Amino acid sequence: MVAEAIIRTIDLNCWFGALTVLKDINLEIYKNEIFGIIGPANSGKTTFLRALNRLNYLNISYQQTGEIFLGEQNIRTLSDNILRKKIGIIFALPQVLPVSIYNNVAYGPKVHGFTGKDTLSQIVETALKKAYLWEEVKDRLSEPAARLSGGQQQRLCIARTLAVEPQVILYDEPCSGLDPISTAKVEDTMQQLKENYTQILVTNNTKQAGRVSERCGFFLMGELVEIGQTPVLFTKPRDKRTDDYISGRFG
């Protein structure tokens, strides 16, 4: 059975001013997989991630050529609002809104036209359950989200993304500021979400990529050096540069 590509990039090149950040990236990411992206700093990992939902264009110096498809649809044809609903992103530091736990999750559905109290409450509960946070916060929904721990805040951000029913979830170093216990809970949440969502994880932690992802891509100086099944990439990489990075000889 041939895997179905949900994200496809064709000859993707990205610049910030005169600086070339990504060079001719051709990549397919399959439906319902967790795809890891590894590589040293300044390899273009975050730029690639943010290209998928056009966040790079918030920088006025950004330029891009090539094509990105979500399923069969070129993302050029989608408005920013719709694209970022379909492709949500979780940042390195939890970006909770300065409102209650409930209103953090309800915010997106309200923007997209859901106003009924019962409907919103069901959406909030479902999203929090999917993010494996419901049991921890169900009696605290009116409290400010800022009172949650860092790990809980990150799972709240995942719930907020899930509330608008995305197809793809992007993670940009989602555990970089978390302790090992909180990291484990976020990783467990990612594994549980795999059945219904495609997830792309940028991480500088190769051990995390090894634990979580099924396939992995190694980026270096703006180039996609190698892609493979994660266990194979980590034990029998084809390219010496991949082996050097994974074994800690550079990066």
Model description:
By secondary structure, the chain is α/β, with parallel strands linked by helices. The chain has a single domain, classed as P-loop containing nucleotide triphosphate hydrolases (Rossmann fold). The protein has ten helices and ten strands. It has helices at residues 45-51, 80-86, 101-111, 117-130, 134-137, 150-162, 180-193, 206-212, 230-235, 240-246; strands spanning 5-16, 19-30, 34-38, 62-70, 73-74, 87-90, 168-172, 198-202, 215-220, 223-229. Strands 6-7-8-3-9-10 form a six-stranded mixed sheet, with helices on both faces. A four-stranded antiparallel sheet has the order 2-1-4-5, with helices on one face. Strand 7, helix 7 (180-193) and strand 8 (198-202) form a beta-alpha-beta unit. Helix 3 crosses helix 4 (117-130), helix 3 (101-111) runs parallel beside helix 6 (150-162) and helix 4 (117-130) crosses helix 6 (150-162). It is globular.
Structural features:
27% strand; 10 strands; six-stranded mixed β-sheet; single chain; alpha/beta; globular; 251 residues; four-stranded antiparallel β-sheet; Rossmann fold
Terminal Cα span: 37 Å
Largest sheet: 6 strands, mixed
Structural class of the helices, strands and pairings? Answer: alpha/beta
Q: Judging from the principal axes of the Cα atoms, what is the shape?
A: globular
Give the SSE string: EEEHEEHEHHHHEHEHEEHH
User: If classified by CATH, what would the architecture be?
Assistant: 3-Layer(aba) Sandwich
Number of domains: 1
Highest CATH level, the class: Alpha Beta
Helix content: 25-40%
Q: Supply Rg.
A: 18 Å
CATH superfamily: P-loop containing nucleotide triphosphate hydrolases
Number of helical regions: 10
Q: Roughly what fraction of the amino acids lie in strands?
A: 25-35%
In total, how many beta strands? 10
Low-confidence stretches: none
Strand order of the largest sheet: 6-7-8-3-9-10
CATH topology: Rossmann fold
Mean pLDDT: 94
